[in-house]
Amino acid sequence: MDRSIFDRDTLLDLTVNVIPLGILAFFLVVFLVYAPGPFAFDSVFTTVQLAIVFTTFVLLAVLTYYAGKAIAGAEKELGTHAETTTIEPDGAASDDEP
User: Fold this and answer.
1) How far apart are CA 98 and CA 89, in angstroms?
2) Are 74 and 48 in contact (CB under 8 A)?
3) Distance between CA 96 and CA 98 in Å, rounded?
4) Are strands 85-87 and 93-95 parallel, antiparallel or unpaired?
5) Is 86 a domain residue?
6) Which residue has the higher pLDDT, 61 or 41?
7) What domain count does the chain have?
8) Is residue 2 in a domain?
9) DSSP 39
10) DSSP state of 93
11) Which whole number is the average pLDDT over 46-54?
12) CA–CA separation, 82 vs 95, rounded Å?
């Protein structure tokens, strides 16, 4: 069975993007369920509002996926976690752990 692209450490790195995704999803649901609320309904403003929130959600989800692939690829290539590795000026990677 093939290992997943995102291991536990990669998922922890990506939580900085998952939390805003949850917030955007919450507002999408609120805007769709309680559409007009106490205010008058205007189809143009509602469409623009939902388009902005939905587009931001999709772009952040795509960014999160590709960031996860980059983190996992760097960890696989270097054989260590990306946070503990520095790149020396000559281009060689070194491990900062004692």
Assistant:
1) 20
2) no
3) 6
4) antiparallel
5) yes
6) 61
7) 1
8) no
9) S
10) E
11) 88
12) 10
| Residue 11, token pair as written in the block | 């998922």
Place of tokens 């692939």: 69
Give the position of tokens 């491990």: 95
For the chain, the residue count is 98
| CB contact at 8 A, 49 and 31 | yes
Domain containing 80: what range? 8-95
List the beta bridge partners of residue 95.
85
Token pair 């509002």 in the structure block, residue = 49
In a domain, 44, yes or no: yes
Q: What is d(CA 51, CA 40) in angstroms, rounded to the nearest whole number?
A: 19
Q: Give per-residue pLDDT as tens, 52-87.
A: 999 999 999 999 888 888 887 777 777 665 555 566
Closest CA to 97 of 77, 78, 83, 79: 83
Token look-up 């919450």 returns: 26
Q: How far apart are CA 40 and CA 80, in angstroms?
A: 56
Residue whose pair of structure tokens reads 């955007």 in the numeric block = 24
Tell me, yes or no, whether 36 lies in a domain. yes
Tens of pLDDT, residue by residue over 17-38, are 889 999 999 988 888 887 665 5
